Batch of 3 targets.
Target 1
Amino acid sequence: MKTYYEILGVDRAAPTDEIKRAFRREIARYHPDKVQHLGPEFQEIAATRAAELTEAYRILMDEAGRRRYDEQLADGTVPPAPVRARPVEAPPRPAEPAAPREPDQPPAQPKADRRFQKERASTVEFVRKAAISRLRDAVAAVSDNASEVRVAGIDAGFGIKAKGGLFKKAEPPVRLLARYVAHVDGAAVEEAWPLAVNAASVHDVVCLLLMGSGIAASQDLAATIAELRRKTRKGSPVLVPVDVRDWSALFPPDAPAAVRAIVQRLKEGKT
């Protein structure tokens, strides 16, 4: 369980001004306007995260409350952080005197562009972390013999041993890789493909879940993947585009059953 200091990303000795800045920075990532285009699942995650930040800010900005909290930390008796607290707006910033405007001064467009790019990157990172977290839960729920593996350029990797039955031949083991991008299109597929090829194994089926908040037309993706598989030939990985907004996926015919089950669980929201 994270402490309030860890939730805000500050040291335990941080002054109140630093706590204010940290709260404003973190709470801005989960503003409803920034997650309204995402699915209900991610909106709920954002609301929970905002509630945690708000409660941490409330306790640490109160001198007596912070002192009691620090004592509980020292004693190891800190209760679980409540997440039902209603998010509040960040404290208003003091007004700054307006500087005299130069005549014919052009608008600060580059600065606005940088701010937009920073906010967009923050939203993408939030969705990436949430999607990978949900995937881990789904893998654990579907397979009791999965282990995590690390692959360069991949957000998460899992080794899944196939289950056999009395009258059923076991499928080969699956090396499930996951990578999140803002949008799954041909360029994203071409960039991710070598990562999956490099992770190929003689005994495992390599399957890459390429996840994003939206995917290109299925026929365009299929054409790109088919061309890459033609060039790769032996040891070609299985690539599955996934839209994390509703967990819909474009499964090729040879997608492993274990991977289909994992995505289905995500789609049903059972993790």
Note: The chain has two domains: 4-95, 128-268.
Target 2
Amino acid sequence: MEYLHYFLHATVALVAMVNPLEAAQFFPTFTQGATAAQSRQAALKATFYAFTILTVSALAGRYILMAFGISTSAFQAAGGLVIMTVGFRMLWGEAQTAKEPSAANVNPAESVGLLVPFVMPIVTGPGAITTAITLTTRDEGWMNLLLVLGAILLNAVILWFSLRASVVMEKWLSVRAQKLISRFMGLILLAIGAQMAMSGVRTFFVDRL
């Protein structure tokens, strides 16, 4: 039961940070002039790259922290604060300039290729990467890592469906509905970040007693 709880916890945290609904809003901008087949291929590539970035972050995060001499509890506390900040901004509907691409600067030929501006930083920005690393710092066991990787995989599936259905979602979801969903996810993210930060602070001081 504990494993299921943490798997859901990790999944919700990543969904809130990656925000597939927001990604789906921007996706058509990066595939303007592309055929249906090219759009499907672009959605698959974007999902694969996002999955790869988050997976590498989760796998290598602990070793990066060790290289810089940062304790996992300290990073968990700092990561929680970062997640809280993003959640607070989403809750109050503040614009995230890093996630607002300019359609005028988009090259349709490149849009169906690597989609680098879309995947990074729109889908997997610093917040999503920090979340992936922070989630792996709860426990050093393999089960914790597997749960996080499973959550990343599930997020990739959700992202892929969202990108494939971007045109339909844009048609059926009003701007107001999208904002309400974004703010709700911001509240969830704020709570998850607070829990991570407090857990990191508690562990940090307990380890030094």
Note: Residues 36-67 form the longest helix (32 residues).
Target 3
Amino acid sequence: MRKRFGRNDIILISVIVIISVALLLIWKLVYLKGQDTDSDACVEVTIDGRAYGTYPLSKDDTIEIKNGDGDVTNTLVIKGGVADMTSADCPDHLCVKKKAISKEGESIICLPNKVVVTVKSDTKSDIDSISK
């Protein structure tokens, strides 16, 4: 004997799919609201915890990040509102393989060279998170 989907089974599956899609859309709207890059967004570059410089994402630029000896360790390219690490002299090149960043709080980290690039913005997000 073959069991077929009954009318109630189809209704149940449809309701589950609709609820899942609705929850996904609500999550995307709530989570991504305020996450877009603002015109005042900038990237902050630090080396070994010390500020190296702050650069606006609105202006295309190429920043050669140098260590204490004056040697270029990393190259950061800002183009089209995104920042991307294009070269590094570290052995693993994980920072170069990381995708370009443009949203508040995103970062590129080069551990061997102790370089951290983070997107900052003066605009406050409407979303607050509270942890208990």
Note: The helical segments are 7-32, 94-97.
